[in-house]
Amino acid sequence: MRLTIVYDNEAVVRLKSGWGFSCLVGENVLFDTGADYKTLLFNMQQLKIDFAEINTIVLSHAHGDHTGGIEIVRQLGDVRVFVPSSFFPPIRRLLSGFRNVETVEVTTMIEIVEGITTTGEIDRTEQSLIVQTSKGLVIVTGCSHPGVDTIMSIAEEHGPVRGIIGGFHGFDRLGLLGDLEMIVPCHCTKHKRRILSEFSKTSSHCAAGMIFEL
Ligand SMILES: [Zn+2]
Ligand SMILES: [Zn+2]
């Protein structure tokens, strides 16, 4: 399965950068929507992403830099939007005018589509994704407000974790990343430079337009 970064603080040439995060997991699942619909749409068009394939959106948490581009539903066919329980009512209200949208409230861990599971809402704030790959699990995070260590220990209940991609927030227990093969700190990561230098063989830079084979 491939993961495409479509919105990030940094971008490859020809794409736009912006404070926020969004990525496409496989072809069907859009995880977060960045801060701004126009930037998100521009980047997705430049990347020639097939809107007809996207049938699922997952919003990690309530912050505007992850939910601001939600109007992307205008480009889609029937789509289910998975929202943590703590901010489900306002998002449902916001999306109530769209006939193609079904809003789904998330509390506990559930499989969203085959091979992609949400951790469920952690600490009444945020959900992350756990993606099954042939080589192990890869975690996809928004900002990691509940803590990368907490998110990792929830995912580990399902099997060995081999990678993590997304915002790491203020996470600094870097030793916990030692066994991973794929470390991709994006958008909201305080210690990004330290992570990239300490794990120079297993970590990668993140930018809108980059594609990772999971
Ligand atoms: Zn946040
Ligand atoms: Zn953020």
Which key phrases capture this entry?
six-stranded mixed sheet, seven-stranded mixed sheet, alpha/beta, binds zinc ion, Metallo-beta-lactamase, Chain A
In short:
With 214 residues, the chain is α/β, with parallel strands linked by helices.
CATH topology: Metallo-beta-lactamase, Chain A
Which shape, going by the Cα principal axes?
globular
Distance between the termini: 5 Å
* Sheet with most strands: 7 strands, mixed
**Into which percent range does the helicity of residues fall?**
10-25%
Tell me the name of the CATH homologous superfamily: Ribonuclease Z/Hydroxyacylglutathione hydrolase-like
Rg over CA atoms, rounded to whole Å, is: 16 Å
Category from helices, strands and their pairing: alpha/beta
- The total count of helices amounts to 5
Order of helices and strands: EEEHEHEHEEEEEHEEHE
Bound molecules: zinc ion
Whole-number mean pLDDT: 97
Q: Just name the CATH architecture.
A: 4-Layer Sandwich
Please identify the top-level CATH class.
Alpha Beta
Query: Can you list the strand order of the major beta sheet?
Result: 6-5-4-3-2-1-13
- Please tally the β strands and state the result: 13
Strand content: 25-35%
Counted up, domains total 1
Topology:
Elements: E1 2-7, E2 22-25, E3 29-31, H1 37-46, E4 56-58, H2 64-67, E5 79-84, H3 88-95, E6 101-106, E7 110-113, E8 116-118, E9 129-133, E10 136-141, H4 148-156, E11 161-166, E12 182-185, H5 192-198, E13 211-213
Parallel strand pairs: 3-4, 4-5, 5-6, 10-11, 11-12
Antiparallel strand pairs: 1-2, 1-13, 2-3, 7-8, 8-9, 9-10
The chain binds zinc ion (2 copies).
Residues 61, 63, 143, 145, 188 line the site of one zinc ion.
